[in-house]
Every structure is written in C-alpha cells, then in structure tokens.
Design goal:
Largest sheet: 8 strands, mixed
CATH architecture of the largest domain: Alpha-Beta Barrel
Shape: globular
Distance between the termini: 73 Å
Strand content: 25-35%
CATH topology of the largest domain: TIM Barrel
C-alpha cells in the first residue's frame, strides 16, 4: 500500500480533499474509476473520486462527526489504488451549522439544530458573466437578506440572456461545439469557487442541473452523457455543505427529449453519488405540470405558481416543505411573469410564510445592457428585497417554524399561522379596524401591529386575552404578531 500525502485536519462539515497523480491518456473522465472509503469507528462512508485534468485526480469528503477518520482508495488504475491516509475532524467553527435538512415535516434546520428559514433569490446565470459583474453580484449579496440563491450550472440562452459565457462546462472543439464526454475542469473549478464564495456569505447554493434554455446542446445530450454529467457534478460539489440540488428549472419543457422515467432515474443517480443526502427537488414550468413531489427522492417542494394562497393545499398534497421559488418577479419587463410590483411580491411572500410555507425573490427590471438581477446579477434596483429581509428578521426572532391555524376564518383569505401560543396573522389586502380571531387561549399576550411595507412594529399598550378585540389601523398590508407573556395569569 502507498501512503498518500494529505492535510491532516478539517472541521466538521468542512471539505477534505486528497489530490492524486494518475493517467491522462485516453478519456480519464469515462475510463478511470476511483472510489474511497472513509471510516470512523464502525461507520464507513463511500465516495467517488473524479478527474480534474492534467493527470490529477481528487477525492473529496465532508465529515459529519469529529474524530479520527481513515480512508482507503480503490481504482481501476494501479497508481490510484490502495492509497491510504487519515484525517482529524475537529468541531465546526462559528457560523458553520452544517448542511440544511428537512425538519418537522414542513420546515428546515441546519444539521446542528439551528433553524433555517429559506429567503432565497434567483440569479440563474450569474456565474456565466464577466468576472467584474460576478464580483458585483457577490458584493450585493453580502448586504442583501438572502440565504439561498437559485443558479444554473449550464449557461442560459433566453431573452435578456444572449451573451456568450466566458467558459463552458465541456471541452470546446475547433468547430465551436462541445465534447459532452469531457467536462472542462476549469469551468467546474470556477463553479466550486463561486459555491464557496456563497458559503462564506452564509448562502445556500441551489444548483439547477438542467434547463431548456440552450443553444449549446446541453439539453440535447444523450441519456448516457446526462448520467455521466450528473455523476461528475454531484461527485465534485456534494462535499460542500451549502449545496442543494434542483434537478431542473422548468423540467416539463424538456419532456420531449427527456421523458418522465428519465427524470426519475436522474434522481436515483444523484442519490447514489451524494452520500450526504443534500436537499433535492425540481421546478415546473407550466402551472399544471407539478412533478409528483411525494416521491421519496424529493426532499421539498419547489414550485412555480403566482397563486400563493394555495400554500396550504400544496402542504396537504405533498406532506413536505413548500417553497414557491417563482411566484413571479418584481420588475417591468414586457413578460407577464416579470412585472409585478414590489408591494405585490412582498405581499405574496408574507402569504406563503403566514400559511406555513416559503417564497423566493426575483427582480426583472429593464436595463440598457440587459443586466437583470434574475439572470445576470449585478445590483438590486427594486424595493421588495429590504421588506423581505424585514420578514426574515421577524421569523428568526420568533420561537420557531410556523404552522397554519386550522380555523374557519382563514378561508376568508386572511393568513394565519402559529408556533405554540405565538401567532403571526397577515391581513394582506384586508383592512380591518380590529381583530378577534385566532387568538391564543388561556394566556395573556402582547400585540404588535406590523406594517409590512414601512417595516415598522408598534407594540400596543397593555396585554390582551382571547376574548379581547385588538385595535388595528384599518389599512391594507398589515400584520399582527401575538407574543404570549410567560408567567402572567390570563
């Protein structure tokens, strides 16, 4: 056995890597198998290795428990076979909470138990722009409230997205086509760099693996090439704790080329090559073409639909967390999904949250150089993002995830949810001058009147009980937060 050189220490949920020299002849992406077994006590985790070009192979691993791990490689090539080593996994550093998991059926938390409330945005093709624009996008994200970004692995060809990308996922040939049997390691190293940039900002990278908006042939790859691509991207990216898998953006627009049974197989391939069980979902295009999110390989519901008042129905239908990641975008482009007002997007986000779900942000304002946030990133021009950040603060200051209130008045389209005796009631377009429904019983509570647009919170004087009517200002877009007073008799 040959001892491999490697770093000795990595934090829990960090990324450990071993680089090995091996053959570069032929097509190593397709012809060389490399695997490794990582062992801690009685537990063993198997991972794949991958070719990173110029005779370099890498094995990556995300340890999820402190202690002394050992590893050993197996390979079809003698140079890569039987390499052994150790790593010492130490406790996580501050801010490292591990990967996000599903919790309490309809919600999320990090692996260390810290609650996670998804307040994401869409920047489909931001990594496919020039370097300066990518850096500007990161600067914007550093001061924005988003903790998740939907982004494509492949470049995008669509309205406002006609520029050629600076790099390509597969090796380019002299005739400017791609060799779909040879990933370009430089592209994937860049993708990894941007995923780690997001990680440093505390942002989850929701990676879209396929989409239909394509002039380079990625959507027309053969099934064998699709499978090999999935294995490669999952092997490279899975060891980063902030990765989510989105199998496709608008998968149903690809059904003629990739039938439903192929999508099911895609999910199985991702599951086979991701030993960490990252969150995994898929996104519809047509409003009546939702994927069957009850299937076991789907961790959460990712949906496109402007009718956010169906949030309760989606929860009941699928029994999983629901994120309406495209409830239409704030903007002014001449396309129906990209010109709602900032107030309307804030309203839809509140409706989702106050019904036990979550919503995504997007912004599509016309720009002379076609730099629209929804695709290319850059800077934010709209007004909804700050108000969405205000809602995130309210959620994170609360006692925990919200469950819809199952009372008859909610069918008036007033949205209400709670956590124990805590309540968050959102009135939306309604403008009552007082309120007496859905109040916690048997406790005294404090009442806060929230202006969701002005981002103000007014705590009403005194305390209230279930039999009281709470005075309200009688204008739309208001919310009511009820916080029980512990230790005070009702």
């Amino acid at each position: 056995m040959v001892e491999a050189e490697q770093p000795q220490k990595v934090e829990q949920w960090g990324t450990f890597e071993v680089a090995l020299g091996g053959p570069s002849r032929g097509n190593p992406f397709a012809e060389v198998e490399l695997k490794a077994q990582f062992t801690l006590g009685e537990r063993t985790v198997g991972v794949d290795g991958f070719y990173d070009g110029e005779g370099t192979y890498r094995v990556r691993f995300m340890p999820d428990a402190p202690g002394e791990w050992t590893y050993a490689t197996t390979s079809s090539q003698p140079e890569l076979d039987g390499r052994r080593g150790t790593l010492r996994c130490v406790p996580p550093s501050p801010g490292n909470h591990g990967p996000v998991r599903v919790a309490d059926t309809y919600h999320f938390r990090y692996a260390d138990g810290t609650p996670y409330y998804p307040f994401g945005t869409t920047c489909y093709a931001w990594i496919h722009q020039e370097e300066a624009l990518q850096e500007q996008t990161l600067e914007t994200l550093a001061s924005a409230p988003f903790n998740k970004v939907r982004m494509c692995v492949f470049p995008k060809d669509y309205v406002y997205n006609r520029n050629e990308p600076p790099r390509y996922p597969f090796v380019r040939l002299p005739d400017e086509t791609s060799d779909f049997d040879r990933p370009d390691p430089a592209f994937f190293r860049h993708l990894e760099r941007r995923v780690t940039d997001l990680l440093a900002l505390g942002i989850e990278a929701d990676l879209i693996l396929f989409h239909p908006y394509d002039r380079w042939g990625y959507s027309k790859m053969s099934a064998r090439q699709d499978f090999r691509y999935l294995r490669y991207v999952v092997t490279r990216l899975a060891p980063y704790r902030n990765v989510w898998w989105s199998m496709a953006n608008e998968y149903d627009f690809l059904l003629e080329r990739k039938p439903m049974e192929q999508w099911d197989l895609f999910f199985r391939i991702v599951g086979q090559h991701d030993p960490y069980g990252h969150l995994c979902s898929i996104h519809n295009g047509s409003l009546d073409m939702n994927y069957d999110h009850t299937r076991p390989w789907i961790s959460h519901v990712c949906i496109q639909n402007p009718d956010v008042k169906r949030a309760r129905a989606w929860r009941q239908a699928y029994g999983k967390p629901v994120i309406d990641d495209e409830c239409e975008y704030e903007g002014n482009i001449p396309l129906p999904w990209g010109n709602i007002s900032a107030r309307e997007l804030v309203h839809r986000t509140w409706v989702m949250v106050a019904n036990g779900g979550y919503a995504g942000h997007g912004e599509t304002y016309l720009h002379p150089q076609d730099i629209l946030w929804w695709s290319k990133g850059g800077i934010l021009h709209g007004e909804s993002w700050k108000r969405i950040g205000f809602l995130r603060e309210i959620m994170e200051s609360g006692p925990g995830p919200l469950e819809p209130l199952e009372e008859s008045w909610v069918w008036t389209r007033v949205s209400g949810a709670g956590h124990g005796d805590y309540r968050l009631i959102y009135f939306g377009e309604h403008q009552p001058g007082g309120w007496r429904f859905g109040l916690p019983r048997g406790v005294a509570f404090q009442a806060d009147v929230i202006d969701t647009w002005e981002m103000t919170i007014e705590t009403l004087p005194g305390t209230y009980r279930a039999e009281d009517e709470i005075p309200l200002p009688g204008r739309p877009w208001m919310a009511l937060r009820l916080r029980p007073l512990l230790g005070e008799a009702p």
